[in-house]
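Quick illustration for those who missed Monday's session on complexes.
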Amino acid sequence: MTQLPEDAIKCLDKGFVRLVDSMGGDDAIVQAARVSYGQGTSKVSQDRGLIRYLMRHRHTTPFEMVEFKFHCKMPIFVARQWVRHRTANINEYSLRYSEARDEFYIPKPEHIQFQSALNKQGRSGEVPAELKQKVLDYFKENSERSFSLYQELNEAGVARELARSLLPVNIYTEWYWKNDLHNLLHFIGLRSDGHAQYEIRVFSDAMAHYVKEKAPFAWEAYQDYVVHGMRFSRVEQGLLEKQLPPRVIDDISEDIAYQITATLHKGKPRDENDLYPLYQKQGGSDSESDFKLKWESGEIETSNIRELREFREKLISLKK
Ligand SMILES: Cc1cc2nc3c(=O)[nH]c(=O)nc-3n(C[C@H](O)[C@H](O)[C@H](O)COP(=O)(O)OP(=O)(O)OC[C@H]3O[C@@H](n4cnc5c(N)ncnc54)[C@H](O)[C@@H]3O)c2cc1C
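Prediction with flavin-adenine dinucleotide bound:
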């Protein structure tokens, strides 16, 4: 088994994730998207806007143009969850061909907790020191005992493909795992989430580190729209339509008109006299004096214009 390579991120006690190779990044997403939308100018700010648009509208294939190949070493019970993600290409260390190594996952004491009463797939609550020690002893005893039986069968010439079935699932395995960015983000979305088991989360977080580095705009958009975004069901929208006072929708729409004006002004500075008409053109309805007061407060944020307009459309559709 491979020991921790210099350029890898250590995961758990003996595992790691290492980026072996990657193809493309934010630029490859933009390049692919421009094939479908026709050529356009490509300033960095426009690239970011386009990537955010694609993510918002779930136009996913441009994200598949970016590829990541990882070398990972993890306990078999983690690999067992990992392989459920079917879109990856995997090549794993073979225990039919090679002998297993004496490398087992032993949890850190702070990760030994009770079965959660609320979450059937989780743990919670501090375990007393004595019980923790027992857990650690059992992990070690079971790993050592099964490995020595495995070795005995190996030495007696029993086929490795059969002898390996004595080994427990905390033994380490390793593989090359290749996936495209769209499916990798999906993996990270599920496996870096608090509902995922801690032992797979650390590997997912390590892969996320490389994604952030290679495709920062795509990463940011995924966080904004998928991880921290919210969708409303038809029933939920119905409730919002009924209960959200039109006054609140109008207030938010006003804020949007200010933000669009500020963003347009930032991109292409206007004369002072042109600002109020520009704001009115964006749907703003404050009086000129109120506009000036708010504008001069310097508190208006800038954002993505298309995104703001889409948000306003959604809000207006909720207005009964
Ligand atoms: C917190 C957590 C708890 C879980 N608990 C359980 C459990 O108790 N039992 C259990 O069995 N699993 C469990 N899973 C695994 C889970 O059900 C999924 O199998 C796993 O997360 C892979 O998701 P996926 O199918 O979306 O991903 P991938 O296999 O990577 O697929 C990505 C996407 O491609 C599409 N796709 C891929 N293959 C097909 C196909 N053959 N047909 C149609 N569409 C396809 C789907 O849109 C899919 O979302 C759990 C997962 C998590 C994150």
